[in-house]
Amino acid sequence: MMTMLAAKGDKGDEEIRDWSSLPELILNILKKDHYYYLKDVCAFRGVCKAWNSIPPPPPKDHLNFIEGLPKLLHIGMDRLLIKFYEPILCRTITKSIPEMGCGRVISHSKDGWLLMAHHRKFDMFFFINPYTRENIQLPRLPENIFVDGISFSSIPTSPDCMIVGVVAEARGPRFVYISRGEDDWHISPYKRPWKTEIVVCSSIIHNGRFYFMVGDGSVLVYDPRQERNNALQSVKRPCTSIEKGYLVVCDGELLAVVVLGSNLPQDDITEW
């Protein structure tokens, strides 16, 4: 039997104890952090006979999430099974979430919550937490208003949660927004006309302002508190051949990530 040493009394005075006397609280911590794979189970239960009674791990598809670990979400073609991949543990958890099927589309995500569109018209939205299955329905957008990009400032259970969307129309962009507790969406007047055809690639709310990236790599900002939008001229585009663009917040900083064209000459790539 494996043994461990425990200090007792004066310096140099030690008591030899076996692993079966390890407090249950510590055992539970060990199980929570490491009890996922067969090799871990065998090693865990092989320490001493007292640990052999510990039940085997649950099936792989029914493992519980560990709070705080980053996860990648993948929705299959049938949209019935949702896969969550935890890269730190190298494991995949599969769950059935019917609320995310039937043509529904993920429009934005933040802090474990998803903002879903009921269908591809993007005029009806709801929040869902894929871990707890909690969902929150939102009022329907006004008639003939369909957003091209939408995001939310904080989790929907937060009192300061705001949702902002952009409507890309030929006459110029319009914005819709709603705060928690409100029953109707607010609609901004038309802004200045677009210079070219606009395709909204990504949108995000940062420090109370709504940023959205368009197809040519430009980033525009709209502040619902001031009812205005401006181009961010300080952002230098790396090139003119941008296939996709994303806006993300990392360590409190707003970043733009772009995917360059595959046929782009190497000498056309510059530092941002």
TrEMBL record:
CDD domains: F-box_SF. Residues 93-258 form the KIB1-4 beta-propeller domain. It comes from the Eukaryota. PANTHER family: TRANSMEMBRANE PROTEIN. This is KIB1-4 beta-propeller domain-containing protein.
